[in-house]
Amino acid sequence: MPKSGQKAGRKPVTFPQYLVLNAERYADRTAMRHKSYGIWQSWSWAELFEEIRAFSLGLRELGLKKGDKVAIVGSNRPRLYWSFCAIQAIGGVPVPVYADSVAEEMVYVLEHAEVVMAICQDQEQVDKVLTMQDKLTSLQRVLYDEVRGMRDYDQEHLFSIDSIQARGGEIFKSSGDADWLEAIDQGEGTELAVMLYTSGTTGRPKGVMLSFDNLVISALNGNAFDHLDEHEQTIAYLPLAWVGDHIFSYAQAYTAGYCVCCPESPDTVTEDRREIAPTYFFAPPRVFEILLTQIMVRMEDAGKPKKRMFDSFMAHARKVGEPILNGEPVGLADRIKYWIGEILVYGPLKNRMGFSRLKVGYTAGEAIGPEIFRFYRALGLNLKQLYGQTEASVYITAQPDGEIRADTVGRPSPDVEIRIDDASGEVLYRSPGVFLGYYKNDEATRTTKTEEGWVHTGDAGFFDQEGHLKIIDRAKDVGKLANGNLFAPKYIENKLKFFPNIKEAVAFGDGRPYCTVFLNIDLTSVASWAERNNISYGSYQELAAHPEVYRMMEEHVDQVNRELAAEEMMAGSQIHRFLVLHKELDADDGELTRTQKVRRSFISERYEPLIEALYDGSTSKHVETEVVFEDGRKGKIAATVEIREMKEHAPSFAKEAAE
Amino acid sequence: MNVHVHPTQEFRFMRPDDGIKQGDPLLVVDNISLSFGGVKAITDISFDILKGEIRAIIGPNGAGKTSMLNVINGFYHPQKGTITFRGQKRSRMRPHEAANHGIARTFQNIALFHGMSVLDNIMTGRITLMKRNMLWQALWRGPAETEEIENREIVERIIDFLEIEHIRKTPVGRLPYGLQKRVELGRALAAEPSLLLLDEPMAGMNLEEKEDMSRYILDVNQQFGTTIALIEHDMGVVMDLSDRVVVLDYGRKIGDGTPDEVRNHQDVIDAYLGVSHD
Fold it and tell me: Closest residue of A to B2, CA-based?
């Protein structure tokens, strides 16, 4: 049993201090699980403490010192999570890196952060780091988790985590852990805890420095807001380098003492989530979209009676599910029907998705389609939205229970102040979670964070009558058409993306006579549609250019135009012309960020001929596009892309207002 | 219960060492002849497979490659000649005896149980290593249960090794061809073979699948120390993977040596590789 030796009456302020505390108060509670060889392996907090202590002592022996930066490269593996705490216990600073980034992207971060060590998941990541060795002058040691394929490497500067832990275990046996605990005890909340590089929709990634206070206070507020305690279970599957994962799978888990489960492999997350049935779950809208699409595709193939039962009960759920969830009064007959539906449809459906025990689910990052959002809410799942940023340690606003809207991001989170800039409409906030600054980039820090501690989000938004924040778009993206009408690209793109058949949309129009869009089809859903309608195709490219697909897209665009026509602010920015792109927008080609957001300026440059074609009246355009594979090789795809003209709808809002 | 199996521990086969030193002959084929009626499939072929190597058998269609593999694992009985495996000379052996002695194979046309899951298919590869009789297994208590758990662990390690966790419970018939091939390799590995025979492991695969499969074959060879004999038509793959190559043509051996030697051998060029384009 560990002796904390914690100063009397002092609350823990760092994660290593929380580890010591949890090893005492929740010694036998499960802290972490990992599915390996088909079985869920688990560690209690007491065991976790021992593992991390051995790891940490081993790292210290290897020469890691206070203030040293350590890169962590890989997917959600227990040892990589342990490494956060093991490094912090010595006063080092973990720098998680997006594991799927190509070598050049990674080298920038590792070089900029001046890492002295890199902890990699497997041979693939070790290879990436080793190819950049010449540029990384500060890098001294590389550690790896999975031994496979590593036997032929020059082992002089390479160490397996196993061997480091074994060494740490010996040190503990021979000289104990008093000095190590002492060092943990001296940790201060104001110290730098972690550096997270933002994926950067523009320019180079910036290293956001977060202190223990930032993370611990935000995590405690988050726990209190959603009543999270040591009984929660969550599944860790989002990139380690993303602030959300750092908060949900590390900061909140340590402060609340709940259990984090690591999936077997990225391909098995859906199956693993079903087995774990998390009580607290976060996913970007895309995950919920994909889940819903999969269910709908399967229901299309289901037998008639099943399909009819599903449709009938889902219609009922849409009617009364949300009011029941929000605790509003609902008639007895409706409640009974909902209860039967729970047994026949909703329950099995939730079980299928792994949401049987879900207490709170969050989605953020992008706008979620109102239909999708309502579907999950109707099933009785407490899915909510939040608005956050790396610079804020996630939480800026969140929706309190019972006040859920599909189109807002909720009220300011605990301890967060928000104001809207009068001139630009930009949202600014101030909170205990506000970051220390960007690493080695004072200029960027000054432009983002004012002296009074207000941080510019870069997003334009406003508060509605109920005090909920609504985000329209990135402030700098909101523009004007040549005729003076407001142009909010994201707003239009989101409307398009709410159709399951459209995966991605990019709108253009700032300073132009009218609005145009690029569309990306969603392969899962369009392919299934093609199969049902006997449409044959050989490749993504061929399917995207199919006349029937174009006709379907035309209907979707027309529907969006009709909706836009009904809104006063947006009626002027209806879509005049559109095209369906011949390739999927991809992060490897730099078109999306690693968090799957569109990089607008890059796309405008890359596809300039296509944009010009959208405005010069031509009906098709031949393009050649270079593509980059994950290993850095390059290839080319050529295609002739068709352009379609759309009818504009007469504004319909004026009539409504007059009535 | 917290049993921690370290994912990082390297997995080695449990089958006891066969007592043959690395680099010594594991299998010696001596003067083998095989004919079906009047058709001579194999004529006086001799070669050896050394322990720990990857040995390729190549040749044009109908050269007798698959017949040779069938002879090695006891499916065909040669009219003439002997085979020495792990120091034991024999002229006749049944396939199940070969399996018991540690020879496993995959087939040119996938021969899996299509209605069964990946896991169950690989589990069948353990059959020769299970000792409990059918009655015990039907009862599934005590020793049979322990045995199943032990065997399941090895199967799980193979699943992990071949990175097919996501299809563990999927019926094999629903899988694409490339994955089925990988499952078949998994089943052969489950027998913890000393000698693994692969009959065209990359036939019908695309480039990416071939790269994956090559990686697995090399890993099996290095990590498990399994000796491998393979038939393959993709010359690039053969030359990259194998330590030594034996070339057959019309049932005769026309070349034997390292990939470089074989590549430059005039008979081989004439018979099979065609005229060099340099």
Answer: A42
